[in-house]
Amino acid sequence: MAGMAEKGTVKETIQIFARVKPTREETSKVYSVNNDEAAGASVEFVVPKDLGDGYVNNKLENYKFRFRRVFDQTAGQEEIFETIAQPVADRVLAGYNGTIFAYGQTNSGKTFTITGGARSYGDRGIIPRTLSYLYQHIIQDSTMVYTTHISYLEIYNNVCYDLLDRQLEACRLEDLPTVTIMHDSEQNIQLRNLSIQQSANEEEALNLLFLGDTHRMTAETLLNKASTRSHCIFTVYLCGRQPGSATVRRSKLHLVDLAGSERVNKMALGGQLLTEAKYINVSLHYLEQVIISLSESRAHIPYRNSLMTSVLRDSLGGNCMTTMISTISVDKTNLKESMSTCRFAQRVALIKNEAVLNEEEDPVLLIARLKRENQSLRDELAMVTGEPRQEQLTQYEIQKLEVQVKDFLEDTDPEATLALGTDLQKIRRCFTLLKTIVSGLRQQLTIIQEKLGRANGTGNELTPLSAVATAPGPRLSIGKEEAFEIFMRDHEDRLTIEDNKAVLKQRYIEAKGLGVQVNKTRDSINELKKQLEMRRIQRADQDHREEEEQDPVEAIILKQVEAEKKEFKSYIGDLKTLRTEIQHVQLLMERAKVKLQKDFKEWWSEETPGPQDSGAPSRLQTGRPSLNSKPSSPGRPGSGGHSLSYFPAHKQQEPYSHVPSATDLRSFVPKIQTMQTPSEDRPASSHQRGGSVLELTPQLRDLSSIKPADYSIPLTGDSRIDDDILAFVRARQNLLQRRDTPQQ
Ligand code: ADP
Ligand code: MG
């Protein structure tokens, strides 16, 4: 399918894959997967023949769809990454654009495949794995200098939002700045208002992904579950060049999570949802049109009809290597939709792309290089023909040299030079300056090494990660805190947090163990080195003749050193892997916590009328009596106002206030500052808690069984606390009443 037409061009059709979502239903008679065919793979559905009048007879019909490969229910995330994403990542590293997009109905596993599951490290999807892979390559490749940038955008109702924007409070999607599209004279699109953030390493990139995902999650307002109806595009921009060369390679990798592909007739019609359904339909409809036009090689391709097709223009029939994953569900009720996904994929497979090696001469770099060459030629010439000067350097000249040396040291360009001309005095002065700087650095290094040595003495290899438990944030008022305890206990995400907490604890133990091993190996290497030195001294004292012979004892020691070194390296490798996992799990936990906090905020504002609302008890009755506060249904009057402003300023402290809210996440990038170490010895009382919500005190467990009438907390006299206590009591009563009375 792929062919190198000319150097630097790859012609290839869009590669299509299918992934079947695991199901508990018995589906062996409904579909089958065949990956052994020479021509590729296929998935086949066996469904009752529909006579078109709603009447179904018992004849069966087979539908077969071809794919490059079909991943059945048991396929794991690693396999998906290796087969689908790794080849694309390789091309991106080589300077070609790449796109992977997931297409399928809501709930068929698009987000699971592209981003990953929110539960465990093993569930991480294509984005984090690809980032890992790219940065690993970037670190190892010493022949190239790379810079990487990242953007993350969400297209919802044909409006484009920047998920990485850090200036605005991202309470709702509508609060994010919108990104607009401009077409330049060559029909290339430019995205205005989209922040493209530099990310120097995997950790920073993962933090950006986390920031965007959290924005995506918290931006879902009460009115809509936006994520199923919006498209998300995570893009990595890679720029690489060889040191000394002015030729740069710029490539882009789009990882796209499309909106659910189900049709408008499947959705509940009414109000907001209809608008959304219409938009999603319109936008996927335009995608379909573009794809049909391309597959039929029509003259006009209607890219400009929608934002999404404009943004993905290159990926569809352009300068890009594109791969599509069709996510399908084989539950009986979803078969029709799954077949329409497969049908769509067959069209997509006809599209030919032509990926071009994105290499260009960077004029700025070229000019810089020519200037350098020019200067060095002049210097050479002067060196040969010029007269050395005799007088001392002036104060001004010395200062200028200092600045020059500083600039030289700070210049990241490996080819930067110190242009000093032929003046020997200047050259000498610079050497002296450099010497002073180096000896200063040496001193600092010694101090750091000593400190490290001390730290290692305690076996604490993972200090930067494990010592990050921060001081508790501002405490909640008592009433609200207790409400939070109860709310949290029943929340669906508590299990995720607890599971991951257990995983983290385990990993910390492993890391600690590895740290001990590392120290042991280091010690024994040092010990062997001492022995070796002793041995050499001894032998030097002995007969001269022997010196030339191979010393068998020395050889043995050297062999041991080699073995220990190998072990040492492998421990360090394991530690690095653990570190990545720990970081990922910590991010998962942070996300679950942010979600919990958000859900609580919504629930609290629903259950407790604020002062401006106290005269409207009807509001209370509209809320659903659910502790697992799901965002309420669309179109309900008044529900759009659930936001922070619902509370007077002094009540705006949130549970988990030590965990950054979505707004605070800007401080997350590039360093995670508020990770929490799991600890066995949490204080028992909820009021002393350092912010952990994972432990429930026995008193609080009992609290939920107390009847409203028995429930009396003495007031404190502090009006702020008392307000919250009363609000909580009201909310509880409300809730219990509604639990007792069946829903109308
Ligand atoms: P979509 O993004 O297409 O709406 P999701 O990716 O959110 O669907 O998947 C829906 C649910 O199914 C999620 O809870 C997800 O964790 C789960 N899921 C999807 N695919 C898989 C899979 N391959 N293995 C395990 N769970 C999956
Ligand atoms: Mg999704």
How is this structure best described in words?
- With 744 residues, the protein is an alpha+beta fold.
- It has helices at 77-93, 110-114, 126-140, 202-218, 271-295, 307-311, 335-348, 363-385, 395-410, 424-457, 463-466, 478-489, 494-541, 544-548, 552-607, 618-622, 698-703, 719-740, and strands at 3-4, 9-13, 15-20, 31-34, 41-50, 56-67, 69-71, 98-103, 145-156, 159-162, 178-183, 189-192, 197-198, 231-241, 247-257, 321-328, 352-356, 359-361.
- Helix 3 runs antiparallel to helix 4 (202-218), helix 4 runs parallel beside helix 15 (552-607) and helix 13 runs antiparallel to helix 15 (552-607).
- It is globular and about 100 Å long.
- The model is unreliable at 1-5, 264-270, 458-474 and 612-712 (pLDDT under 50).
- The structure holds adenosine-5'-diphosphate and magnesium ion (MG).
- Keywords: ATP-binding, Cytoplasm, Cytoskeleton, Microtubule, Motor protein, Nucleotide-binding.
- One of its GO terms (cellular component) is microtubule.
Summarize this structure briefly:
The chain has 744 residues and is α+β, with helices and mostly antiparallel strands. The protein has helices at 77-93, 110-114, 126-140, 202-218, 271-295, 307-311, 335-348, 363-385, 395-410, 424-457, 463-466, 478-489, 494-541, 544-548, 552-607, 618-622, 698-703, 719-740, and strands at 3-4, 9-13, 15-20, 31-34, 41-50, 56-67, 69-71, 98-103, 145-156, 159-162, 178-183, 189-192, 197-198, 231-241, 247-257, 321-328, 352-356, 359-361.
